[in-house]
Amino acid sequence: MKKRILLPILAVGIFFTTTSYKSDFFEIAKQIEIFTTLFKELNMNYVDETNPAELMDTAITAMLEDLDPYTKFWNEQEVEQARIQNSGDYTGIGASIETREHKITIIEPYKGYPADKAGLNAGDEIIKIGDIDVSDFQDDAGELLKGAPGTSVEITFKRQGKVQKTTLKREAVELHAVPFYKLMNKNIGYIVLSKFNRKASSEVAKALQELKAEGATKIVLDLRGNPGGLLSEAVNVTNIFVPKGETIVTTKSVIDKYNKAYQTQRDAIDTQIPLAVLINGRSASASEIVSGSLQDLDRAVIIGARSFGKGLVQRPKKLTYGTQLKVTISRYYTPSGRCIQALDYWHRDEKGNATRTREEDYNEFTTKNGRKVYDGGGILPDIQLETSAYSGITNALLEQNAIFDFATKYYYNHEIKKLEEFNFTDADYNNFKDFLKKTDFNYQTKTEKELKNALEIAKDEGFKEVIQKEYKDLLASIEKAKEEDLEEKKPEIERLLIDEILKRYFYEEGLYTYYLTHNPEILKARDILNNSNEYQQILK
């Protein structure tokens, strides 16, 4: 409880130049002095040898965990990663990677870049970089893949159990915010916006202008899976379709200087072109500002599933030795006044988990045309589709990399040379279910967790033997229900499997090309945009 009292005081103290700090500054100085003396005495007198850096990391991590998951301490490497993420340019092997249990896994090699040229595939596990074993490297081994343009790096990797070697020559890598755009059905432009880096608005504007020149009279903007990024770029992207002077998002904070209304600053490219925006449960932050403001201003029809609900604003603050604090400074609100944030990290339940607003407690707001919209976290689409949803079992499959790993297995067992040849069948889906049984995939429902807690309580109260049989029967019923869940949620799971598999053969370009004729959300957007009466009816 002490941490929860101290940290808000600390936040006010940090910004005391713009607020009345009175005795708070003394309290901060007092607590810092206590901590400094404790840290010194601990390191000088503890029975075993201590590691001051590790102790401090633990202290910082524990302190920040009591706030929200977005307030973080960044070391020098993480500061550089954030810079790359925002700029979209870096030098390396040109691949998305993930560190799993002291192994670096290739998630996606970018077409035409070093990893791709060297023949690395998604699913390859990098076990050695040069002479350094990844498993022995204490820091982020992914940093070893970066270097000056033109320099070489030897990589040892494991593919399907076989160890191989290759040498890559590092290149400058450009990460596009818009990886794909194309004209479909002769008059509908399709634009994918995958991130909000500094290139986002300029690349969307370029894509829109080129598509209009090709004959586009309607636009689909795809924000599915877009995790967000720069607030300024969210405003600028919206500005492409909205006139100058419109309020797009408002931020609110206990710190006065962070209470701001962000308005469009430029003349729009096109304020009239019919627009459909696609979102899902992994569209977050800046994606929610764009989709939420376009919905509130009745400028676009929103299609898909409720967005993630990340409505907290962060700003990096420089610390010493090249480190930074990424600190939450305010909350986002859409033009109608809705708060985007879904989870309340400051009013936790008895287990310490952040609370979520119940549907019956949602507040009603109105759009520019008077349509009813609601808060509760995230943006609720005008048209919801089950293929856009992320149920509990789907999230578990993603978190445990089951979909990714099955796609790797599929790739090495199927030869597909042309996009038109691809067809994911019921037999393929049954193979996926069999694959899950043979792996260590474990999906624990909320019901199972509660039952387990109830059994522990019963054990303490002496009732465990009495209810043991009923408990086992319930678990068996839940297991059966989970198997049925795999079939019931087939549309959303199958779509994610198709996404992952297609990228293995045809990169992002092939995936989005496939979307144009097969993706339910795009087909729904196409139908609505081609029916002007339905489009106008939704917005009015």
From TrEMBL:
GO terms for molecular function: serine-type endopeptidase activity. Its EC number is 3.4.21.102. It holds the Pfam family PDZ_2. InterPro entries: ClpP/crotonase-like_dom_sf, PDZ, PDZ_sf, Peptidase_S41A, Tail-specific_protease. GO terms for biological process: proteolysis. Transmembrane segments: none annotated. It comes from the Bacteria. PROSITE patterns: PDZ (PS50106). The keyword Hydrolase applies. PANTHER family: CARBOXY-TERMINAL PROCESSING PROTEASE CTPA (PTHR32060:SF30), TAIL-SPECIFIC PROTEASE (PTHR32060). Belongs to the peptidase S41A family. This is Carboxyl-terminal processing protease. It comes from Mesonia maritima.
